[in-house]
Amino acid sequence: MQGMIKIDGSLKSGSGTILRDATTFALLMGKDLQLINIRGKRDKPGLRPQHLKVVEALAQICQGKVKGARVGSREITFKPEHPIKGGTFHWDIGTAGSTTMLALSVILPGLYADALSTYRITGGLFQDFAPSAHHMKYVLLPLLSRMGIHIGLEIIQPGYVPQGQGQILVKVKPLKGRPKALSLVDQGKLIEIKGMALSSHLKGRRVSDRMALACLKTLEARGYDAKIEITYDTKEAPEYQMASIQAGASLAVWARTDTGCLIGSDMAGAMRRAAEFIGKRTAKNLIEDLDTEATVDRYVADQLIPFASLSEGWTAYRIPRMSDHIEARLWLVEELLGAKTEVKGNLVRIRGIGYKK
Description:
Layout: E1 4-8, H1 16-29, E2 32-36, H2 49-62, E3 65-67, E4 76-79, E5 87-92, H3 99-110, E6 117-123, H4 133-145, E7 151-157, E8 166-172, E9 183-184, E10 190-200, H5 207-221, E11 227-233, E12 248-257, E13 262-268, H6 275-291, H7 300-303, H8 305-310, E14 312-318, H9 324-337, E15 340-344, E16 347-353
Parallel strand pairs: 1-2, 5-6, 9-14, 10-11
Antiparallel strand pairs: 2-4, 3-4, 6-8, 7-8, 10-12, 12-13, 14-16, 15-16
């Protein structure tokens, strides 16, 4: 170990993003981490179950040690070890907490593991304020593949708020070298828009059809054609290996351009949230991001930062707008990894450290 890193989790976004990234980066750099004021700007500060599971999972794959890790804790000490272990792991968040957030935390170290990693994660797949499993599968992961990062994602069982109990299966292939930089500076011309309208135990109310129709109408009003796959997950005819234990819905759409951009938008169902509202809002968010001439959407804009910071050379892309998550992640990759970042207008540039195992 080369000394201890100390990070104040109330700085910048003051969110769980700082906890997840700081712990992951500490593992990769082989440095002890003291994290204080965890999620200091959130209504319920401290570790929630999904954040606790991230820390426990990271400790497990490197046989590290954690002090102070419990629900509600506002301070932890994380002591990673090496090597990072591949193999098969199963983590159950125990709530509807985000499975994709946990996946994104373990994928980075999984790239430098000693063998293929298979992560089965149980929790929520579709909710507000977290990447949806469809967005991750159809937008983020294809972009990462262009950086030489190959990750498989399979939805085993849909899971929604409040009960969760959905499952995803993530397979991470270790890198042979360094990640490649990604250059997306020109949005280019739109080639196609695709989508996925999923609902569980709501076929009688035609929720998937209604979400898709409202989305298509909103896109067509702006001159965009789209193809949205309509799926109903029921106990009688499950689309996935297992049907959801509760009713729920999710809509995701993504646009592909001739310069290789993938720009997505999604929204989960919620109590008293009409299917038509989900369809319209999802379409409007996509249109808003396309109108800015961005080359990534508002979600990928911050999700790419950790990967770009480990790549070799300059990654560059245009964001729809600045957010506190983008600011926090740019700060952390400079603070903990030594990456260099630049923001000029809506152009984000990140010079990675060329990290190699």
